[in-house]
Amino acid sequence: MKILITGGAGYIGTPLVDLLCANPLIEKIIVYDNLSRSNYNLFIGAKKEGYQKIVFIKGELLDSRRLKQSLKGIDIVYHLAARVTTPLANSDAHLFDQINHWGTAELVYLLEETAVKKLIYTSSGGVYGSSSEPIDELVQPDPKSFYGISKLRAEEHVRRLSDRMQVYILRCGNVYGYNRSMRFDAVINKFMFEANFEKRITIHGDGEQSRSFIHVDTISKALANIPESDLAGGTYNLVDKIYSVMDIVDAFKQIIPELEFILINQYVKLSNLNIKRNDDINRTLGVLYETSLKSELSESLKRLRF
C-alpha cells in the first residue's frame, strides 16, 4: 500500500505516521504538509525501522499541480490538513473557508481522476453545533462557528466520492494528550501547561460547559487501523469521553493538590457539545477500552521536561 497524508506533520499526523511506518504492508508514506504551524517535530528523533518509507512534500492544498503529482500511485489518502484555531473558532472566517472548505474541494476534484481506493477524512464534532444531551450520527448537523461550517461543507465534497472509493468521514472530539507535535491551544493541553508551570488554571465561564474528548493516541490508532479493518465507508463519530471543564480541573487537582483556578466571566454560561461514543466503531477500530482521565494526565505530565 502507498499512502498520502495531508497535514501529516501535525498533532494527529505525527503519531499516525509512526504507526503506519510499523505496518509491513505499507511501502510508502507521503507526508503532504505546508508546515503552517512551524512544527518540525515530525523530523526529529532517531531513525527507526520503517522510517525509510516516508517522503515529505511541502505543499498547499490549493496547489493543484503539486497535489496532483503527489497523488500518483497512491492507494489510501488520509485528509487531516485543516485550519484549526482553538478556542477562537469564529475568527478568520475567510481562512477557515479557504482551507477547510475549498482546500478539501480541490483534493476531491483531483481524487476523481485517480485510482485511490480509500479516503479517510477527519472532520469535527463541531459540525453539530451544540448539545447538552449526548447525540449520535442521526442528529442533523447545525454548526455554530465558522470552523464548524467549513468542516461541514468539506464533508459534502468528500461524500461525493462515495461511488468511486470507500469514504470515511470521522467527526472527532477535542483531541488531547502528549506527543512531540502537541498543540497547547487545545483546552486540556492548555490546562496541562498552566497546571504544571504556573500552578493555576484560567477558566472562561462558569466551568460547567462540557465537550466530548479523545486522546491523541486513541485517535491515531483508530485511523491507523482503518485500512485493514472491515469497517464500511460512512460517517462516524470518533470520540471517547465527555468531560466538563470542572471535571478536568478536578482530575488535575488530584495530581497537583496545590493547584488553583480562576474563573473569568464566571456568570457566563457557555454552550455544551456532548457527542455519544459509538462503541461499535471504537470496537471495530480496536480502541474501545477504559482509561481514567487522571492516569492519562499523569502520564502526559511526566513527559514534560521540568
Keywords:
single chain; 306 residues; alpha/beta; Rossmann fold; UDP-galactose 4-epimerase, domain 1; 2 domains; 7-stranded parallel β-sheet; 3-stranded mixed β-sheet; 32% helix; globular
Describe the structure.
The chain is an alpha/beta fold and 306 residues long. The chain folds into two domains: 2-175 and 214-239, 3-Layer(aba) Sandwich (Rossmann fold); 176-211 and 242-272 and 290-303, UDP-galactose 4-epimerase, domain 1, CATH 3.90.25.10. The chain contains nine helices and 14 strands. The protein has helices spanning 13-21, 64-70, 93-111, 146-159, 187-197, 216-225, 245-255, 279-284, 293-303, and strands at residues 2-6, 28-33, 54-58, 76-79, 118-124, 131-135, 166-172, 174-176, 200-204, 210-215, 234-238, 241-244, 260-264, 273-275. A seven-stranded parallel β-sheet has the order 3-2-1-4-5-7-11, with helices on both faces. The protein has a three-stranded mixed β-sheet with strand order 8-10-12. Helix 1 (13-21) packs across helix 6 (216-225), helix 3 (93-111) packs parallel to helix 4 (146-159) and helix 7 (245-255) packs across helix 9 (293-303). The chain is globular, with a radius of gyration of 19 Å. The N and C termini lie far apart (41 Å). The mean pLDDT is 94.
